[in-house]
Amino acid sequence: MALPRTLTIAGSDSGGGAGIQADLKTFLSMQTYGMSVLTALTAQNTQGVQSIHTPDPAFVRAQFDSIATDVRIDAIKIGMLANAAIVREVIQCIAALQKEHEVPIVLDPVMVSTSGSLLLERDAIGTLISELLPLCALLTPNLPETETILQSAGVTPKATSSVLAKMMASAQSIAQLGIPNVLVKGGHVPITHDDLQEALQDARVSLPLHTDDEAIAGFSDTSVSTSRDVHGTAALSARVERSERSDIAQVLGASAFHAPRLDVFLAHGPNDVRLLRRNLPNVGSTSYTVDVLYESATQHTTVFVKPTISTSATHGTGCTLSSAICAAHAHGHPLRIAVAHGLQFLQEALQSSVEDLGKGPGPLNHGAYVMPRGIPLCTARCGAPLTTKLIARSWHLWHMYTRHPFVARMCDGTLSKAAFVWFMRQDYLYLKHYARVWAAAAADPACSPDDLRDYVTISQASIDEIRLHMAVCERIGIPRDELDRTEESRTTMAYTRYMMDIARQGILPLLVSVASCAFGYAEIGLWLKEQRQRHATPTSALDPSYEAWLDEYGGDGFQDVVRSTLDMFERCAARVMPSLEETEHLQEIWNTATRLEIGMWDEAIAQGERTEGTV
């Protein structure tokens, strides 16, 4: 297939972090063929802009015509335009091209550099607003640029009580100037957890970022009207919108919440998972970056919420995001999905940004996407990229598994004894297969001495788990010989045979098939330990068998083994470096194993209800 052809009309950054340099790197990383029309030359580095040279507007047209008469352009990004004469020349070029074929255009209104240098002369702003905006599909201003545009147009947005409310109001106000869609970027003003809560409550939404409750007041996945007209148009529209939401959530690794004419996508990061949180005091990020997309045609607002990445290397973020959205458009993605791809690219480029390039703020790492990697690089800011991705893209399943009623009832003492007995019998059988899978990992020809040591350690931990089960079963009246005569249930059989089948596919699929169990029980152990401390559950209120189970998985011994397992898992992923297609298969394995974990507890509760009082 031919690469989509993308064009940047922008200034040059001699430091390489912004301008056409950032645009072309982004185009390449997102598998498009990038071309450029230079509107200005800048002498700049990480410390600022020292000088600007603008070419004759006729030369700008010559560059554009040279490309347009030879190459079909699939999407255009417009950045720095410098002055009114160049703005007018670009308008004429774009208008002529749009008459030949419709081209999506993303306009990044570059006005002032981060260091304070004026990059668009003030007399050009009015021309840009009145004549260039209506030719574009999307405008991507940051907050200072938003204020400049509205002031220049003589528009005063209504007063609001929060940054998010201001962004939403500003996006709608700018859209009234003739641009179909506006993405107001919030990177200049990260929002704290409390501010985000307050802002979303203003929009009649309650988003519990620091709790385990996924319920959102005022939101549901059935908020889109499905009333059917004679042609079924409304029902079809609802299905399309739900499909698009699902696609966006998958791209971002996000949970999606919906209300009339409003969507919120909350992207998850390593701090949202207790297992990956390490020594941080709270679950969830303490700072969020919020971007607001407003679509004029549908009067629909989409709020993208992402954990703020702590880095000083942010030079070129605006150029990079607009170019990434442009590239996604060139691939044929609809607007909102193109924006999601752009935001995800930006997150990963920020995550591995170059902090030590020069004396000032460094640029993003546009090369983070150069190879079609299934998982991003392992960095200090995300030490478990594969685990994070697997959990983030199966968040609902992960939540159902790690907060299952079985473990919650065990913690508060309300789990029926019959359910516990059923589970302990079946889990004894499961653990024997679990240990065999780790033995199969040790037999893999690619196994290094370090891997072999890790696999033996994990196998020994599995044996210790089996001994715990036998001891607990003895305590509740199930001797060893009776335990060995336990008949394997259909759910247990499905799970164990699935693991054994996956073990033949290679070392990384094998590890993923057992990781859901290991990492899930570690997460559960930490969560239950926290719940018991928070609610001060007296030991006397719990069955001693339950107490032993809770202590085992929340204890340091098991947690240390799983942390070693996690490090080994990520080292293997970095070594194998799975492709995008391979990662999709790993996700399927993870999701299946997680569903099977849920199934074992569902079965235990169901069997407990049937046999309660007979055990």
From TrEMBL:
Gene Ontology MF: a single term: hydroxymethylpyrimidine kinase activity
Record Gene3D superfamilies: 3.40.1190.20, Heme oxygenase-like
GO terms for cellular component: cytosol
Source organism, top-level taxon: Eukaryota
Record-linked InterPro entries: Haem_Oase-like_multi-hlx, HMP/HMP-P_kinase_dom, PM/HMP-P_kinase-1, Ribokinase-like, Thiaminase-2/PQQC
GO biological process annotation, one example: thiamine biosynthetic process
SUPFAM superfamilies reported in the protein's UniProt record: Heme oxygenase-like (SSF48613), Ribokinase-like (SSF53613)
Pyridoxamine kinase/Phosphomethylpyrimidine kinase domain segment(s): 13-201, 285-365
Thiaminase-2/PQQC domain span: 397-604
Entry keywords, A to Z: Kinase, Membrane, Transferase, Transmembrane, Transmembrane helix
TM region positions: 507-528
PANTHER family: HYDROXYMETHYLPYRIMIDINE_PHOSPHOMETHYLPYRIMIDINE KINASE THI20-RELATED, PHOSPHOMETHYLPYRIMIDINE KINASE
Protein name: Trifunctional hydroxymethylpyrimidine kinase/phosphomethylpyrimidine kinase/thiaminase
Native source organism of the sequence: Malassezia brasiliensis
